[in-house]
Amino acid sequence: MLAVAVLAAGKGTRMKSNLPKVLQPLAGLSLLERVIRSTENLKPNRLMLIVGHQAERVEKELVNHPGKPEFILQQPQNGTGHAIQQLLEPLINFSGDLLVLNGDVPLLREKTLIELLNHHRKLESSVTLLTANFENPKGYGRVFCNREGEVISIIEDRDCNQEQKQNSLINAGIYCFNWERLKEVLPKLNSDNDQGELYLTDTVALLGNARHLEVSDTTEITGINDRHQLAQCEAILQERLRQHWLKEGVSFIDPASCTISEQTIFGKDVIIEPQSHFRGRNNIGNCCHIGPGSLIKDSDIGDNSSVLMSVLNNAKIGSDCTIGPFAHLRPDAILASNVRIGNFVEVKKSNLNEGCKVNHLSYIGDANLGVNVNVGAGTITANYDGKSKHPTRIGNNTKTGANSVLVAPISIGDDVIIGAGSTITKDVPNGSLALGRSRQYNKENYNEN
Ligand code: UD1
Ligand code: MG
Predict the structure, then answer these.
(1) I need a surface site. Which of 210, 223, 380, 406 has the fewest CB within 10 A?
(2) Closest ligand to 31 CA?
(3) Is there a contact between 310 and 325 (Cβ–Cβ < 8 Å)?
(4) Distance CA 214, CA 163 (A)
């Protein structure tokens, strides 16, 4: 049996934020979400989140998480040992291993956790903790071992004397405990230390038979206490994500200038030009060409499509589409295949069927366009009357002239031609030419000079 407990009750004062530290985002996922994800494939029998500071907000974010977390309230927050003491009741009948993770250590790999569990179970230790050798161990608890390599004590940086501070073996704050043994010693913790708190690290000396596993990649155990470390972790994660997609057949012209969210998926032979950014959940098809200079958020793009210097937010684009430069596709812009959206065009909550072209300077909102509609330069769907939004329907193969205004609600048939400069306020039947502009009047010989 395996139980996982994540320490997430601390305040995170140094972040200087209204958002609880464990909810800060990294490449589109919160720190806590990342920590939980790293345990997913271990299939824990229990997943317990120890919450305290802004507990309600943390619970609200994670209550529907598929890992079905149990929320354990720690109030007040009297140290990491006190936090784990809160498990004595909920785990009263539990037997097995307890994996303790820090909510502010988000880069840990699943592989490392598996190694920790295997090491712990093989040696039947009371506790096994992750350690690392740091050139600059300042701020971390130091780990002291005997000749056999067993851990005999952990001393916090602030409690170390000068000699102890020289020890560069640090405690990463990630532990696997034998729960039956841990529950016997938890009540014995005392607060005889510089912070006057109950330290989980003090259980090591009380337990005996404690071991450690040194991590090979020290970036994995980077903890986040301030915005500087948050930015460092973001950089590490972005590098990991780019390396992953490079291996999967995506080309980056200037990788360091692009950012990717965890929930973006690319097909093969995608080319990503400099300064392109992917946020939220995206699905980018094969052979797409994105950028330079694009922002793609929560959008799907079909195969062979290109997006140049444009912003997509919650849009769905079919295959063989060309977007931009300087286009803005807003929520529920749904494009079939072979659609062309050109410069300074904004599309919102509209369906554009196959072969539509909106090449220049247009606003298309709350509209439904049939196949092969050609929207002339400067065409506007006037969808808002100051109170509500109204729909525009345009039939197949229709062409709107330059500078047409289509005042919604309105329905324009198939094979219609709308004269340039028209303001169209009445429905137009199939096959018609619609003109909605004042006649031109020429006063001859007016300028005699
Ligand atoms: C802790 C370890 C230290 C280790 C370091 C690694 C102890 C005493 N020290 O120190 O040896 O090197 O982590 O990063 O454990 N938390 C609670 N309730 C509390 C206090 C903290 O849930 O009452 C949570 C925090 O939200 C955080 C985690 O526990 O996620 C660690 O607490 P923190 O105060 O950051 O401990 P460190 O001083 O970093
Ligand atoms: Mg910390």
Answers:
(1) 223
(2) 1
(3) yes
(4) 22
Q: Does 34 sit in the ligand 1 pocket, CB within 6 Å?
A: no
Q: Which of 102, 155, 218 to mutate to test the pocket of ligand 1 (most atoms within 8 A of CB)?
A: 102
The Cα 131–Cα 116 span in angstroms is 11
CA 114 to chain centre: 25
Distance, in Å, from the CA atom of 33 to the CA atom of 25, rounded to the nearest integer, reads 9
Say if CB 418 and CB 437 are below 8 A apart: no
User: Any residues with CB less than 8 A from the CB of 448 and at least 6 apart, and which?
Assistant: none
- 253 backbone φψ class: left, alpha, beta (φ>0; ψ -120 to 50): alpha
Contact call for residues 354 and 335 (beta carbons, < 8 A): no
What is the 8-class DSSP label of residue 329? E
Q: Is 111 left (phi over 0), alpha (psi -120 to 50) or beta?
A: alpha
For residue 292, say if its preceding peptide bond is cis, omega within 30 degrees of 0.
Answer: yes
**Is residue 319 a contact partner of residue 354, using CB atoms and an 8 Å limit?**
no
Q: Cα separation of 133 and 215, whole Å?
A: 9
Per the annotation, the verdict on 360 as an active-site residue is yes
Is ligand 1 within 6 A of the CB of residue 80? yes
Q: From ligand 2's centre to the CA of 68, what distance in Å?
A: 25
pTM (predicted TM-score)? 0.91
| pLDDT per position as a tens digit, 246-264 | 999 999 999 999 999 999 9
